[in-house]
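pls design
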């Protein structure tokens, strides 16, 4: 389907390009050409074409806007910014150009500049997407109350703007307002009770935030309105589980799987409940089913590391070789390169990105803060340099791993890696990471930028990274399979399905890390 769509765009670009060559003043053909290139710019010299178009159309704001879209699709961000600025020069009311220009500045890490651009528009006619962008930018700047007001303005105009709901629901707990996280969803659902995507988003938010009563209520109401689909019944079971009604949750999930044995969510959510009650054989069957339904999802493999350990199954050592697959790399020398400026400079740089007061409920940190968004997507010279150093070190380490085509980690070994998300965590006194995995990753990491004195001492395990301790309550708690003591400038990499967390520390100085998930390069 994608190939067919690309072919259609390529054919359109060829046709409209021919029309433009015949008549460079044919506006509709130029817009058609730029629209096609904004979808499929490959194989075209977009910069040269834009220069040629602008030579014939020097004051047309709409054409400049389309030029910006084509430049952005062609990975020419500076040219896109130039085009949008020209579009606004000739039409200050061009909402698309203003929104896209602010978006580009935000991608460049220039939030204040982006905020000035979006704030210069006529707020009385600001579209909801631009109110949402303004809210994102205000939150980036740490102006949270004004950001919340902007999210409300966006949702007043468009209660179905799901991206704004998702951002608002996950921001409020980081500001100490977790009970308010779903309020905007409830209000929007009253206005649009048949908006299925809005129900799905609200249910996903309640799942992420582990709000059991709200999840039960949302899932029940959605079942009443749309019918009791398998996914809604799984969500209802999770609502029971989050409220401590384990037996009711297990019974519900068993009913779902009896009717729909291919429901991977049903299998994955049933497994930890069965492990906690000691039904290991049934838990193993569901975990194996999940790995067969989606081998790339790390969740099924993570449960098998635990089940096989509890059952004394030798396959645990094959799947979870903690000594071989947890790899420590010393990046302290690379961080002293001129493009980073040393760990102290990096620590100051990252600290400026921490602006919330509470940890996000849906993530692993407890007693600290986590940066917003993917920090490796920022057009930030220092962060891009760190990204390059991490990539080089990881790719060298991956090349040394053994081959095993049957292994869920080793079988995906590649010569290069792509990043699937990056963030920074700053833990305060008593802070730690709850045990977790990264279910959409392949390889995950922890990079130590600044460590308090208690973590650096040789006679303590404060703040250490632990492996093999699960996020389930067991009658007999499991000890870590491996403990890694952090060192400044150390990058620790490991399979994303490894259960990992950290021990708390007692020190007034923060524990500052970076982390990223990686995938084999496509």
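designed seq:
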């Amino acid at each position: 389907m994608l190939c067919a769509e690309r072919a259609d765009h390529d054919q359109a670009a060829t046709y409209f390009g021919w029309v433009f060559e015949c008549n460079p003043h044919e506006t509709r053909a130029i817009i058609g050409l730029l629209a096609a290139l904004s979808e499929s710019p490959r194989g075209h010299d977009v910069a040269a074409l834009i220069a040629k178009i602008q030579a014939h159309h020097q004051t047309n704001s709409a054409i400049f806007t389309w030029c910006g879209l084509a430049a952005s699709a062609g990975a020419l961000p500076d040219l896109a910014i130039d085009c949008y600025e020209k579009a606004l020069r000739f039409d200050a009311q061009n909402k698309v150009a203003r929104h896209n220009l602010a978006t580009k500045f935000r991608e460049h890490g220039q939030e204040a500049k982006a905020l000035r651009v979006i704030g210069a528009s006529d707020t009385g006619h600001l579209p909801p997407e631009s109110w949402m962008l303004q809210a994102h930018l205000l939150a980036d700047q740490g102006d949270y109350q004004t950001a919340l007001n902007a999210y409300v303005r966006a949702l007043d105009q468009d209660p179905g703007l799901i991206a704004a709901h998702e951002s608002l629901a996950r921001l409020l707990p980081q500001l100490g307002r977790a009970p308010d996280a779903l309020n905007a969803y409830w209000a929007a659902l009253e206005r649009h009770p048949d908006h299925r995507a809005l129900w799905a988003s609200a249910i996903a938010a309640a799942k992420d935030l582990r709000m059991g009563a709200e999840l039960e209520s949302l899932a029940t109401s959605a079942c009443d309105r749309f019918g009791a689909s398998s996914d809604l019944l799984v969500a209802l079971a999770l609502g029971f589980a989050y409220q401590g009604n384990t037996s009711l949750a297990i019974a519900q999930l068993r009913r779902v799987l009896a009717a729909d044995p291919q429901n991977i969510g049903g299998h994955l959510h049933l497994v930890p409940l069965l492990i906690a009650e000691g039904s290991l054989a049934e838990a193993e069957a569901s975990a194996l089913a999940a790995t067969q339904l989606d081998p790339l999802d790390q969740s099924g493999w993570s449960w098998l590391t635990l089940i096989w350990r509890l059952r004394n199954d030798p396959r645990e050592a094959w799947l979870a070789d903690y000594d071989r697959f947890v790899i420590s790399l010393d990046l302290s020398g690379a961080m002293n390169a001129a493009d980073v400026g040393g760990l102290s400079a990096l620590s100051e740089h990252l600290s400026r990105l921490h602006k919330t007061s509470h940890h996000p409920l849906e993530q692993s940190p407890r007693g600290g803060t986590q940066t917003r968004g993917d920090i490796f997507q920022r057009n930030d010279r220092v962060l891009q340099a760190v990204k390059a150093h991490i990539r080089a070190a990881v790719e060298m380490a991956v090349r040394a791993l053994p081959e095993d085509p049957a292994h869920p980690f080793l079988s995906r070994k590649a010569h290069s890696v792509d990043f699937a998300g990056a963030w920074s965590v700053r833990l305060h006194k008593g802070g730690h990471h709850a045990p977790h995995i990264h279910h959409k990753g392949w390889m995950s990491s922890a990079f130590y930028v600044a460590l308090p004195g208690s973590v650096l001492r040789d006679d303590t395990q404060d703040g250490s990274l632990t492996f093999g301790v699960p996020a389930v309550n067991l009658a007999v708690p499991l000890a870590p399979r491996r403990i890694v003591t952090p060192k400044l400038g150390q990058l620790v990499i490991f399979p994303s399905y490894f259960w990992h967390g950290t021990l708390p520390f007692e020190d007034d100085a923060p524990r500052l890390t970076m982390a990223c998930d990686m995938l084999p390069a496509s």
